[in-house]
Amino acid sequence: MSHKIYLxxxxxxxxxxxxxxxxxxxxFAVDADESIFENESPTNYVExxxxxxxxxxxxxxxxxxxxxxxxxxxxxxxxxxxxxTNYADFERMMLxxxxxxxxxxxxxxxxxxxxxxxxxxxxxxxxxxxxVEEIQWYWQTNEPKDKAGGYGIQGLxxxxxxxxxxxxxxxxxxxxxxTDALLHQFYAQQQNQAD
Length: 195
Prior knowledge:
This protein is α/β, with parallel strands linked by helices. The chain has a single domain, classed as Maf protein, CATH 3.90.950. Helices cover 37% and strands 27% of the residues. It contains 6 helices and 7 strands; from the N terminus they run βαβαββαββαβαα. The protein has helices at 12-21, 42-59, 87-97, 132-140, 168-172, 176-194, and strands at residues 4-8, 24-28, 67-76, 79-81, 101-112, 115-127, 161-165. Strands 1, 2, 3, 4, 5, 6 and 7 form a 7-stranded mixed β-sheet that branches. It is elongated.
């Protein structure tokens, strides 16, 4: 059954994934302050941002169907790795991920003016040991420059991944099963409130 939603994200990967769910949707970017609060845990951070993006869209007037907001963070040793600002920053990230397991946290939120529902999906991703040459080569492909944690699992960065526990789609930016389940839960709650 095809649901109608708004997707509050400019990400081409999220667009692909929502298309895969079979939803009818309009996509647009929202401007949200992504700074981390002091002492905020990575889980609370991604969930707050997903909710903020969905609720920002409602404030902009997208009120006639549920708005989907989402946020993804790459986390190692409880530290969020953002998008690399330059090569030195990227190299630091790759050396931190090299030969280790890290977490990818993806939060999704559905919102209407009277309701917001969200969840966080955690996936464990393990990297092979990376050589300096591999790190330099990957940077030169330009792929890492706009990616959280400096890599894209669905692109060239996928060759570094030796193991994944959890949702592959969440690492791409939108967990399919959990998004669909959350939307059904959202509609069920609306129905209960209407009864």
